[in-house]
Specification:
About 20% of the residues lie in helices and about 40% in strands. Strands 2-3-4-1-5-8-7-6 form an eight-stranded mixed sheet, with helices on one face. By secondary structure, it is α+β, with helices and mostly antiparallel strands. The two termini are about 25 Å apart. It is globular, with a radius of gyration of 15 Å. The protein has one domain: Roll (2,3-Dihydroxybiphenyl 1,2-Dioxygenase, domain 1), CATH 3.10.180.10. Strand 3 and strand 4 form a beta hairpin.
Length: about 130
């Protein structure tokens, strides 16, 4: 059986200061780090053993709601990628994107759950994508 566990929660936000005011200011989640990478504003917060990453896309990337599917992506680390891919295909789960070769990073697949939430099933990695 292919075991998996939640790695981190990524929330696609429209306004970083407003989001930080809520998550850090109101909810008091510890702020680990803020940075800008290729125009993407990132903020990492801690929520117990789960890391929450807020991501504000550059203005030119914000229009594609189909890829964002509600703005939330849950990442699951997968111990056996090929076995998990078989399970996903057997269940007729919609695969939005498949990176089976790795292409410079971990092998991963972007899928939707039955309610339309986006999940990234990935080999373990310290990178975001």
């Amino acid at each position: 059986m292919a075991d998996c566990s939640i790695a981190k929660l990524i929330l696609d936000v429209g306004n970083m200061p407003r989001s930080l005011a809520f998550y850090h200011g109101v909810l008091h989640l510890p702020l680990i780090e803020q940075q800008v990478v290729d125009g993407h504003r990132l903020a990492r917060l801690s929520s117990g053993s789960i890391e929450i990453m807020l991501v504000e896309q550059p203005q030119e990337d914000q229009g594609d709601a189909q890829m964002r599917l509600g703005g939330m992506v849950v990442i699951f680390w997968v111990d056996d990628f090929e076995e998990m891919l078989k399970f996903v295909r057997t269940a007729s789960t919609k695969i939005l994107s498949l990176n089976r070769e790795g292409n410079g990073g971990p092998r991963s697949m972007l899928v939707t759950d039955p309610d339309g939430y986006t999940l990234l099933l990935s080999e373990r990695s310290e990178t975001v994508h």
